[in-house]
Amino acid sequence: MIVYLDVFSGDEMFSDALNPKVVQGCLYEVEAKMVSAGEEVGGLVPEGEDVDDSVEQVLNVVKYAKLNETTFTKKQFITWFKRYMKKVLAYLQENNPDRVGEFKTEAGAVSKVL
Q1: Residue 83: what pLDDT?
Q2: H or E segment to which residue 30 belongs
């Protein structure tokens, strides 16, 4: 199993079990599914089966990577995103300078659609 970690915090973000794919060159997209909040790892509901509406449902990627929900206004999100992209750019300049030009182009395109 491949586990993807945040390079800044070292926190687990997701694993290859969620079929990650790169979107627009600089973002990851994963296949998340709803699971019962109280179930242990592997508690996916098979396709076609009913889900008990009385049980709290959460995204598996959020639950198993212990991600925290955030709430942003659009303006706050844009501010956070720009700051994060600058941090990623600085990381690339130090660790993978050949990727910097391509990243700037990709991040600029992504910022226009978010």
Answers
A1: 94
A2: none
Q: In 3-state terms, what secondary structure has residue 72?
A: coil
Tens-place pLDDT, residues 96-109: 999 999 999 999 89
Please give the single-letter amino acid code of residue 77.
Answer: F
Distance CA 57, CA 97 (A): 42
Q: What Å distances lie between residue 85 and 36, 54, 66, 88, CA to CA? A: 33, 40, 23, 5
Q: Distance (Å, rounded) from C-alpha 73 to C-alpha 14?
A: 25
Q: Which residue has tokens 């019962």? A: 36
Find, among 36, 24, 96, the residue nearest to 62 by Cα. Answer: 36
62: left (phi over 0), alpha (psi -120 to 50) or beta: alpha
Query: Tell me: the pLDDT tens digits for 21-62?
Result: 999 988 999 999 999 887 665 545 555 556 566 788 989 988
Taking only Cα atoms into account, the Rg of the chain, rounded to an integer number of angstroms, comes to 17
